[in-house]
């Protein structure tokens, strides 16, 4: 039997995608560089629990010890999905495959590759006669098995050959759970770019939730039991989302060894795999202010300086944390601040998507992208449907904050948002996410910012020129500031 698709790379994500494909009726060939991993995966299939392996799944999966044998056992045009570490390992696997494949075969990279690599690989493989699809996959291990969000891009000629598989294994949403969270995103690296933005928004969401927790814990002194109740209530309203849900659950877990709540015994240093950093770096290249996500990246960097922070805490002083207001009102304020800040995070993400689409000539459908994130992925949440509705109503929407629904939401949340940020500042509690979101909002709504003085400074010391409010845009001027100055 020749297989519908082949997958290379049997780490947990790869294994679960294979099981997902086979559970949905597709036959899958698998290969891993370490042959013992292949053998162990295939041999253990019959012993997997029923909620992981459906009837007949084991019969649809075969493992191979050489790439040559693996390729020979695929239907044509061959579809090969690569699930290995991003960067050089992906290029190495592609070079292994090229001599063994025929023109028109499809190579799929389902890892967390950088969009620039996908741009390059799409063009290089097209010139060699192959179809390359760079595919963002979100949802973690559980999503890979039960239905992830899938964001394919690359050579569009390859899309019809993988569409059926990808849409069947993806998460489903809609009234009848029949709308797949998978649709063609765009040319070249568009799929991996959208996945990068997803991950950047994920960074922002997680940071904002952590700040909400930190404020409630240190300002009000809430216990983990009380925090559980707060997040439980939040998850039943407009903040309903996967990340709020798992945060709720975290507050219930105790360490069997110590009996303490586990969250309190976890070291406060956060790691990252790079996608949030890539988004911030490209935001700077594009000249777009993706400030909240960048602050979320920096917050992880600061958390990593644990030893330095411990030393500083013994030297540097700040205000004593005090609260004498209405406890319930403050919890409601934090909820509203979190909601408003999340809206800003998504708004910034879409502004960057639009800028990237213009830069690379991609035709992105922002409403469809919101739908891709409605299920299966880490940032899935209730208000993504509202984002889709906003772009369906106005596909050329310049910024989500200008949509009537989101403008009203921000207007309603604004008093609470400002009270929470002010309280945090007065109590010496760091809120880089909340603060960046509010500062962006206040900057975006101003028709005049102090950059006029900045331009005067640049022209003074470097003759960089400036534009004038009373002249046509694009016309530049220079002043001899030293000669014109009037010192008294």
TrEMBL record:
Q: Which Gene3D superfamilies match?
A: 6-Phosphogluconate Dehydrogenase, domain 3, N-(1-d-carboxylethyl)-l-norvaline Dehydrogenase, domain 2, NAD(P)-binding Rossmann-like Domain
Domain (6-phosphogluconate dehydrogenase C-terminal) spans 191-482
Catalyzed chemical reaction(s): 6-phospho-D-gluconate + NADP(+) = D-ribulose 5-phosphate + CO2 + NADPH
Alphabetized SUPFAM superfamilies for the sequence:
6-phosphogluconate dehydrogenase C-terminal domain-like, NAD(P)-binding Rossmann-fold domains
Q: Which PANTHER family match?
A: 6-PHOSPHOGLUCONATE DEHYDROGENASE (PTHR11811)
Alphabetically list the UniProt keywords.
Answer: Gluconate utilization, NADP, Oxidoreductase, Pentose shunt
GO molecular function of the protein, one example?
phosphogluconate dehydrogenase (decarboxylating) activity
The organism's place on the tree of life at top rank? Bacteria
Name of protein: 6-phosphogluconate dehydrogenase, decarboxylating
Q: Where does substrate bind?
A: 112, 138-140, 198-199, 203, 273, 300, 458, 464
Pathway of action: Carbohydrate degradation; pentose phosphate pathway; D-ribulose 5-phosphate from D-glucose 6-phosphate (oxidative stage): step 3/3
Q: What does this protein do?
A: Catalyzes the oxidative decarboxylation of 6-phosphogluconate to ribulose 5-phosphate and CO(2), with concomitant reduction of NADP to NADPH.
Enzyme Commission number, as recorded: 1.1.1.44
| Family listed | Belongs to the 6-phosphogluconate dehydrogenase family.
Q: Which InterPro entries match?
A: 6-PGluconate_DH-like_C_sf, 6PGD_dom2, 6PGDH_C, 6PGDH_Gnd/GntZ, 6PGDH_NADP-bd, NAD(P)-bd_dom_sf, Pgluconate_DH
- A Pfam family (short name) is 6PGD
């Amino acid at each position: 039997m020749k297989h519908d698709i082949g997958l290379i790379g049997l780490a947990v994500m790869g294994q679960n995608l294979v099981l997902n494909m086979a559970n949905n009726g597709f036959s899958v060939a698998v290969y891993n560089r370490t042959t013992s991993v292949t053998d162990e995966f295939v041999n253990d299939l019959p012993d997997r629990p029923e909620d992981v392996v459906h009837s007949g799944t084991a019969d649809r999966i075969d493992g191979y010890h050489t790439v040559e044998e693996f390729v020979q056992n695929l239907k044509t045009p061959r579809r090969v999905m690569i699930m290995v570490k991003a960067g050089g390992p992906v290029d190495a696997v592609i070079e292994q495959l090229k001599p063994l494949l025929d023109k028109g075969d499809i190579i799929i990279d389902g890892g967390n590759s950088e969009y620039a690599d996908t741009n390059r690989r799409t063009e290089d493989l097209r010139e060699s006669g192959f179809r390359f699809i760079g595919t963002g996959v979100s949802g973690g291990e559980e999503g890979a098995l039960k239905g992830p969000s899938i964001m394919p891009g690359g050579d569009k000629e390859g899309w019809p050959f993988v569409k059926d598989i990808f849409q069947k294994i993806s998460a489903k949403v809609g009234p009848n759970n029949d709308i797949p969270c998978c649709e063609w995103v765009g040319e070249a690296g568009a799929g991996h770019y959208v996945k990068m933005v997803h991950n950047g928004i994920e960074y922002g969401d997680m940071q904002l939730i952590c700040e909400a927790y930190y404020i409630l814990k240190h300002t009000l002194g809430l216990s983990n039991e009380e925090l559980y109740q707060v997040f439980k209530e939040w998850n039943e309203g407009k903040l309903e989302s996967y990340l709020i849900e798992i945060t709720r659950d975290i507050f219930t877990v105790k360490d069997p060894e110590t009996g303490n709540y586990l969250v309190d015994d976890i070291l406060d240093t956060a790691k990252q795999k790079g996608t949030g950093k890539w988004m911030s770096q490209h935001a700077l290249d594009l000249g777009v202010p993706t400030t909240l996500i960048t602050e979320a990246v920096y917050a992880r960097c600061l958390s990593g300086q644990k030893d330095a922070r411990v030393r500083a805490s013994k030297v540097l002083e700040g205000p004593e944390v005090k609260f004498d207001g209405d406890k319930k009102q403050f919890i409601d304020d934090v909820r509203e601040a979190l909601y408003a800040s999340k809206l800003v995070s998504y708004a910034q993400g879409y502004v960057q998507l639009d800028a990237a689409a213009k830069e690379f000539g991609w035709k992105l459908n922002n409403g469809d992208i919101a739908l891709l994130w409605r299920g299966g992925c880490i940032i899935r949440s209730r208000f993504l449907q509202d984002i889709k509705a906003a772009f369906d109503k106005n596909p050329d929407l310049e910024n989500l904050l200008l949509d009537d629904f989101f403008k009203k939401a921000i207007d309603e949340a604004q008093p609470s948002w400002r009270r929470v940020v002010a309280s945090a500042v007065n109590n010496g509690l760091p809120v880089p996410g909340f603060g960046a979101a509010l500062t962006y909002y206040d900057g975006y709504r101003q028709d005049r910012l102090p950059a006029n003085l900045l331009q005067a400074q640049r022209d003074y010391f470097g003759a960089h020129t400036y534009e004038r409010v009373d002249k046509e845009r694009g016309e530049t001027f220079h002043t001899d500031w030293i000669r014109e100055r009037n010192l008294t």
